[in-house]
Each structure stands twice: as C-alpha cells, then as structure tokens.
C-alpha cells in the first residue's frame, strides 16, 4: 500500500515508526539515512527521478538492495527528489532528499523485483536529401529492373526495363563522353574531328557535344551513344536539342538502333545489310532547337532487312545524310 505525505511530516512519521518498532524488543532494529530506497515502484526507465519513491524494507544487513526502483513492494513518497543517480542501497546519496531505509540485522531483504527499463525511443526518421537535378540513367540516375519479357538473341539476359522516372539519357554537364562514339563514310580524303564539348549547351545548360568534318563524298558522318539493351517501351519517344549545319540542306537522321539492325560486330543480331535503323529526319537550325521524335514516326530507309522498333534500344545515332561538310551539336537527350 502506498500513500503520500509532506516532506516534514514524512520525516516525523518515520522517526515515530522507528521508535515504535525499536521498542518492541525484537531482534530487528531500524536506522535511517539519506539514500535511495530499495524496491519501490518501477520507474519508467529513469534514474534518480524526481519522484522520491522509496521502499520501507524490513531489511537485513546481508541484503544488497539495488538503488534502481523495483517493480514490486510498497512505497511511501516522502517528498520530491532533486535527482541524482541511484546509489547501491546501503550507501548514502548526497543528492536528493529521498529517505531510504536499510535494515541493521536479520535476513537479507531481496527487495522488489527489478523494474525493466523504459522502452527505448526510436530515432526520428532520416530526412532524405533534397531532390537534385535529374541525371543520366548510367550516371547515377534511377535504374530500372531487369526485363521480365523473354528476349532472345544479343540482348538475352541483358535487358534493362526502364521505369517512367528513367527519363534522362545523356547530358554533357560533366564533360563526359563515356559510351559516345563517332563514325564516318569511306571517303579517304575526308577529315572527321573527334567529338568535342561545346559551350554553352542548350536550354540554359553549360555544355553540349559537337561533331564536325569536311571532304565527305558519301553520307558523311555520325555521332552515337551505346545504351546496351534498354527496354524503353514505357515511353512515347525521345527528345533532344540540336543546332548546326549538315550537307547541302542541313538535314540529319536521328536513328534508333535495335538488335535486328545492329551488326553482330557492334553487339547486335544483324549479319547482313545492317545499320538500316528505324529513323526520323530532322532539319537543323543555326540556333538550339528542341526536337521530339515519337517512336511511331520511326521508319527504315529501305536498304536493309525489314525491322521495327519493339521497345528495346541498343544505341542512338545522329548522322548526316550527305557531304561534303557537317558541323552540328546535340544536347539534353531524354525519353518522354
């Protein structure tokens, strides 16, 4: 049974009780001293709390009651404690006004059952970093899962199924040309300059990519990026920015290389009349312009075996249609 009295009254009452008990002539005697009582009501995981809850124990000297409040035993609140860490039972604590009782003789007092600590609080949810700018899929952007479709040929077991958030194919803001390549016709005297980073880029960006050359007598030259069996069937098409000149009419072809038209030597399935990729011609302007090419607009030129885009892409190309010169730039390539 537990009850509460005031601080001063509590001390008088305890002295009174001690006098009565000591006068009974029993073998047991009581002394009191400041300290933390053994037993008592279980605290909620706190040490040296403000409750000042102690155990009146008919204790023996052999006991080693813990200062940590137990789950059992009756308690008397004799006033507020100022805190302080619990002592080891018989040792007086200088902090706090709790009055603990220790037995002088007799059997050991086991005290109340040890109270379990309060449940540990869980940490707050980690805040996620602010969303940064979208990055290319192969440069730390969100990658799609493996494609669940059955795919044979060159892309068997290699298909990456893109999700709707995997939109950015390439930018040039970090000046990286990883996975990019250039190619040309067989004109011996022609000159094709390596792909170069051009500044500024399109749409307020700092960089784009430039391809230039002269002296071509065939189709000219092209720039491309290898993207390794991506399943882009969740998208409607591809957008990009471009500018410059090409041939006599400034037209270039945007090509989507698929396994059926990509040569075996380049990782595809085509063994004859290759590189007739599904494509769309666009007209270049002197200044940056954005182009949107729906997949439904793609068509072959007609020199290769018939093939159609079915969702899987191995590479993207931008290629001139005729010489003798070309000088064009591209930037900000993405699915939509």
Describe the structure.
This protein has 336 residues and is mostly beta strands. It has one helix at residues 7-22, and strands at 3-4, 30-34, 53-55, 75-77, 99-103, 145-146, 160-161, 168-170, 180-184, 191-192, 196-198, 208-214, 221-231, 237-246, 251-257, 279-283, 289-294, 312-320, 325-335.
Q: What distance lies between the first and last C-alpha atoms, to the nearest angstrom?
A: 74 Å
> What is the H/E string?
EHEEEEEEEEEEEEEEEEEE
> What Rg do the Cα atoms give?
42 Å
Rounded mean pLDDT is: 72
Query: How many DSSP H or I helices?
Result: 1
Could you say which overall geometry the principal axes of the C-alpha atoms support? globular
Secondary-structure-based class equals: mainly beta
Unreliable spans are 1-5, 11-132, 139-144
Number of strands: 19
Largest sheet: 7 strands, mixed
Tell me the fraction of residues in β-strands, as a range: 25-35%
Estimate percent helicity: under 10%
Give a quick summary of the entry.
This protein is mostly beta strands and 336 residues long. The protein has one helix spanning 7-22; strands at 3-4, 30-34, 53-55, 75-77, 99-103, 145-146, 160-161, 168-170, 180-184, 191-192, 196-198, 208-214, 221-231, 237-246, 251-257, 279-283, 289-294, 312-320, 325-335. Strands 6, 7, 9, 13, 15, 16 and 18 form a seven-stranded mixed beta sheet that branches. Strands 8, 10, 11, 12, 14, 17 and 19 form a seven-stranded antiparallel beta sheet that branches.
């Amino acid at each position: 049974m537990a009850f509460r009295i005031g601080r001063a009254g509590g001390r008088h009452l305890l002295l009174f009780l001690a006098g009565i008990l000591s006068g009974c002539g029993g073998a047991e005697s009581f002394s009191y001293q400041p300290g933390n009582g053994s037993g008592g009501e279980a605290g909620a995981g706190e040490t040296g709390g403000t409750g000042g809850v102690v155990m009146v124990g008919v204790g023996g000297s052999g006991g080693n009651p813990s200062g940590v409040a137990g789950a059992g035993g009756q308690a008397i609140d004799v006033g507020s404690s100022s805190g302080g860490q619990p002592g080891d039972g018989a040792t007086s604590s200088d902090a706090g006004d709790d009055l603990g009782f220790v037995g002088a003789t007799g059997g050991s007092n086991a005290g109340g059952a040890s109270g379990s600590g309060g449940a540990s609080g869980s940490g707050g949810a980690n805040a996620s970093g602010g969303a940064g700018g979208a990055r290319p899929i192969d440069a730390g952007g969100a990658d799609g899962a493996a494609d669940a479709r059955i795919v044979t040929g060159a892309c068997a077991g290699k298909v990456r199924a893109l999700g709707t958030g995997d939109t950015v194919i390439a930018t040039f803001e970090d000046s990286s040309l990883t996975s990019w390549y250039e190619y040309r016709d067989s004109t011996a005297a022609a000159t094709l300059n390596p792909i170069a980073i051009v500044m500024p880029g399109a749409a307020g960006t700092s960089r784009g990519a430039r391809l230039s050359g002269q002296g071509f007598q065939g189709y000219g030259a092209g720039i491309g990026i290898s993207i390794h069996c991506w399943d882009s069937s969740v998208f409607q098409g591809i957008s990009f920015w471009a500018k410059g000149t090409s041939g006599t009419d400034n037209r270039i072809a945007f090509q989507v290389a698929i396994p059926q038209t990509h040569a075996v030597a380049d990782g595809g399935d085509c063994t004859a009349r290759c590189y007739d990729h599904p494509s769309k011609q666009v007209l270049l302007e002197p200044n940056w312009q954005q182009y949107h090419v729906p997949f439904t607009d793609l068509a072959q030129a007609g020199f290769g075996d018939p093939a159609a885009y079915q969702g899987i892409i191995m590479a993207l190309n931008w290629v001139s249609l005729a010489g003798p010169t070309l000088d064009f730039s591209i930037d900000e390539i993405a699915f939509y």
